[in-house]
Amino acid sequence: MALIVDVFSARSDNFGYLLHDESTGRTAALDAPEANAIEDALIRTGWTLSDIFITHHHVDHVEGIAQLKAAFGCRVVGPRAEADKIEGLDVLVGDGDKVELGETRFDVIATPGHTLGHIVYFEPIGKHLFSADALFSLGVGRMFEGTPGPMWEGVKKLRALPDDTLVYCGHEYTESNARFALSIDPHNRALQQRADVVKSLRQGGKPTIPFELGEDKRANPFLRADAPELARHYGLEGKDPAEVFAAIRKGKDNF
């Protein structure tokens, strides 16, 4: 039996996810961006919510917790480092911990930067990564709370996962991410090809997720901060890749 992932839209540009363990029927919402959207997805699938896995404290990822918990009595798992910022957490987890959903097991990976306590959930058997705002298709989240060094280290942890990992991120930002990436890495053939696919998907009204991590490793400039051509673009040859990562993040912020 396997993990089934149901994808739906929430709020204005959030992705919502239901994670369903086939063996036991347990079902988790990955974050709680909008309770009504999650409840609609549960009705459509016929599943019953048993858990919520929270990645970080921003309102567009936690707003639905109270309503869902009241309706379903579900267990809420979330980052230990942000427990003081998130109401309703039942189980606190951090880097290296394991989370079970029936017979499906997830590794918790710390990815500080977007928020200091941001975590992601990786399911190693089926190779599913639920990255929220730590890693987007062709981008990463804004560095609201962290510093470049730890954020780059967290990104490298994700980059080390298998190439055939399917990534499910928090928002549909891929088109704008592609435009920025091409502006700083215009000769990257893998990026050019990816941008063409993204354009076609969005013109057809289709989402750009999930995406394969291996493709993103070749095309996403934030995963390539240690590539010489990106260091040259910013005049940072020979510098620590964390400095290049910081320059890329600043460049995207101002793009």
- Which regions are unreliable across 5 or more consecutive residues at pLDDT < 50? none
* Annotated CATH homologous superfamily: Ribonuclease Z/Hydroxyacylglutathione hydrolase-like
- Major sheet: arrangement of strands: 1-2-3-4-5-6
Mean pLDDT, all residues = 96
The domain count comes to 1
User: How many helices in DSSP terms?
Assistant: 9
Domain Metallo-beta-lactamase: 13-171
Organism: Devosia soli
Function: Thiolesterase that catalyzes the hydrolysis of S-D-lactoyl-glutathione to form glutathione and D-lactic acid.
Pathway: Secondary metabolite metabolism; methylglyoxal degradation; (R)-lactate from methylglyoxal: step 2/2
Word description of this protein:
This protein is an alpha/beta fold and 255 residues long. It has one domain (3-253): Ribonuclease Z/Hydroxyacylglutathione hydrolase-like (Metallo-beta-lactamase, Chain A), CATH 3.60.15.10. The chain contains 9 helices and 12 strands. It has helices at 35-45, 59-62, 65-72, 148-159, 174-184, 189-203, 213-219, 228-233, 241-253; strands at 3-10, 14-21, 27-30, 49-53, 75-79, 91-93, 98-101, 104-110, 119-123, 128-132, 166-169, 211-212. The strands form 2 sheets. A 6-stranded mixed β-sheet has the order 1-2-3-4-5-6. Strands 7-8-9-10-11-12 form a 6-stranded mixed β-sheet. Helix 5 packs antiparallel against helix 6. It is globular and about 55 Å long. The model has no long low-confidence stretch (mean pLDDT 96). This is Hydroxyacylglutathione hydrolase.
